[in-house]
Write a structure and sequence with these properties.
Helix content is 35%, strand content 16%. By secondary structure, it is α+β, with helices and mostly antiparallel strands. Strand 3 and strand 4 (57-60) form a beta hairpin. Helix 2 (88-95) packs across helix 5 (142-160).
Amino acid sequence: MARVPVILTVNGAEQAEFVEPGALLVDLLRDKLHLTGTRTGCGQGTCGACTVLVDGEPVLSCITLAARANGTAVTTVEGIATGGVLHPLQKAFAEGFAAQCGFCTSGMIVAARALLDRNPDPDRAAVIDAISGNICRCTGYEPIINAILAAATDQRRTKSA
């Protein structure tokens, strides 16, 4: 089969690659673009470790064809920080010990970013709903939920200052 061209913007930079028709977005990101923060966990779309934003919406990149991302803007965990400055979510995860083994962390942060982009003042239920597609085996979720709520507060405080 002939490879297909894929042109997309990843973390603000335009990328052009040729991929096999059945290539997955996670493989394009990790293997061709060397953005290894996006994890391959279950390979079935159930764990959320592979979560990225496609045009601002959380997407499971392990079950999304790379060709489907043609013409889109993709944000990975590497694109969450700006100019070397941690995003409030990244800072809150570190300060709140919300990452233990770290395997789910990138997917959690990306899913939480989508939530805070659409709802800068989420309640606990909204946070739980936003990360419901992401599995964590280490933390029991409490530090993650608390970190997301803390990041939301920090973002609101920073914007009002």
